[in-house]
Amino acid sequence: MTKEKDKHIGLRIDSETHQKLKNLAEYEGRSINGEILYLIRQAIIKHEKTD
Predict the structure, then answer these.
(1) CB within 8 Å of 23: residues ≥ 6 apart
(2) Which of 30, 40, 49, 50 is deepest in the core (most CB within 10 A)?
(3) Which domain holds residue 26?
(4) Phi, psi of 18 (to 5 degrees)
(5) Is 8 left (phi over 0), alpha (psi -120 to 50) or beta?
């Protein structure tokens, strides 16, 4: 069985939001990509709890 490759998503983001995301990621000790994944996963968990 072969492992499915990770998916790539291109994301357009304004400069102000990017800077705030960068600051948040640095504060949390994550990369920007890691922070985005963390936030998405948290939103999914929250959504699944409400279903």
Answers:
(1) none
(2) 30
(3) 20-50
(4) -60, -45
(5) beta
